[in-house]
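Example for tutorial group B:
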């Protein structure tokens, strides 16, 4: 089987690092490039840093598949700081740059919170930015819409009381709308990346409910295959709830 040339944008942070790890473990990409602002020694076999001064100035033919990860900011060590960190508002311009560079298939992990989206938009294009990306002419686009927990902060005084109230309200949020662990989102993203090239052309949005269902599985590949093909999703084989 021919290896796919893949590029990751947003390889730093908890989620970005997990996505890189999962993609490398699949051994389906050759090379697997990651966009960085400064060169560093990649200790992982098969990982190739691609140094750019501007995330929108990409060399032609750098990848067939691009995975763009939006991650919440964390305290970065020197290696994390080297990775290009895209901002959500840059999505249309970044996607256009990827398309100009020859990328055919695009997988985007979006930072939308499930509860902030109307039910009618959970599996559809929710913003003008997403519509602009869908209109660029990629063969296949998948928008992976996953809930994100809030940024970590130290609570004091009245804020601590408010946080306790919010924590109680969170228990009332349906399980299928609650955030899932970064490792499970990364596992799902890697499964999508591996199977996307064989899927029918078009733009797809994976709603948070489907992301949650995939997170309950030890291996989401069967779900991904069915979802990409437009078939009924496999039933859950376990009732254990992961968060």
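The residue assignment follows.
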């Amino acid at each position: 089987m021919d290896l796919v040339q893949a590029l990751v944008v947003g390889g730093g942070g908890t989620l970005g690092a997990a996505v890189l790890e999962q993609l490398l473990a699949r051994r389906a990409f050759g090379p697997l490039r990651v966009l960085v602002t400064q060169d560093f020694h990649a200790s992982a076999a098969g990982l190739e840093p691609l140094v750019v001064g501007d995330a929108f100035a990409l060399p032609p033919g750098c990848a067939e598949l691009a995975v763009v990860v939006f991650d919440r900011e964390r305290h970065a060590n020197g290696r994390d700081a080297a990775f290009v960190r895209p901002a959500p508002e840059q999505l249309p311009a970044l996607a256009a740059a990827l398309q100009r560079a020859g990328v055919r298939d695009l997988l985007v992990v979006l930072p939308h919170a499930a509860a902030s989206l109307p039910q009618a938009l959970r599996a559809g294009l929710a913003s003008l930015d997403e519509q602009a990306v869908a209109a660029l002419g990629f063969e296949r686009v998948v928008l992976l819409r996953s809930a994100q927990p809030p940024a970590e902060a130290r609570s004091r005084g009245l804020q601590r009381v408010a946080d306790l109230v919010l924590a109680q309200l969170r228990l009332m949020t349906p399980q299928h709308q609650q955030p899932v662990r970064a490792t499970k989102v990364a596992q799902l993203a890697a499964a999508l990346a591996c199977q996307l090239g064989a899927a029918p052309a078009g733009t797809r949005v994976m709603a948070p409910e489907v992301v949650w269902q995939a997170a309950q599985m030890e291996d989401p590949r069967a779900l991904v295959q069915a979802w990409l093909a437009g078939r009924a999703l496999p039933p859950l084989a376990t009732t254990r709830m992961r968060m």
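The helical segments are 13-26, 78-82, 91-100, 128-134, 157-170, 182-196, 208-215, 221-229. Compare this with the pattern of hydrophobic and polar residues in the output above.
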